Amino acid sequence: MIKVNQITKNYGQKVGNFNISFNIKNGEIYGILGPNGAGKTTLIRQIMGFIKSDSGIILINDLNPWTKSKEIMKYTGYVAGEISLYENLKGIEYLKLISKFRKDLDWDYVEKLITHFDLDADTKIKKCQKEWNKKLL
User: Would you say the pTM of this structure is higher than 0.85?
Assistant: First the structure.
């Protein structure tokens, strides 16, 4: 469950977002819509705990993402709109590299995901489409 209550991120003259509140129950899907500069990315970064709100409260399963981001990251994911990968690595090489940063990684599960998402993991990243790179993350 995600609870957002009266959060604000103020960038001086330019307000990132102001007094945003909503609740998302487990299993619900929400979208964030708005014109460029409306604060959508700022909101996501606040929810993920990448930046701190100036005021208000955010809870993900009753945990504050700013102070408990490590625990929250165990069961959430985030793919940025702009990504940059090591282009000279093959997909499988990249996956093996980042797997070293994860404790208790189940490589069999990774291989199932490679098959499920139909990744050509033996291709160099620079030769793949951007959509493929997001799957790789």
Answer: no
113: which 2 tokens? Answer: 């995901």
Q: Are residues 18 and 55 in the same domain?
A: yes
Please work out, in degrees rounded to the nearest 5, the angle formed at the alpha carbon of residue 85 by the alpha carbons of 81 and 89.
150
For residues 6 and 61, state if they share a domain. yes
Give tens-digit pLDDT for 11-28. 877 668 889 999 999 999
Q: Are both 6 and 53 inside the same structural domain? A: yes
| Helices of type H across the chain | 40-48, 69-72, 91-99, 107-116, 130-136
Structural domain total, the chain: 2
Strands 55-60 and 2-11: antiparallel
- CA dist 14 and 10 (Å) reads 7
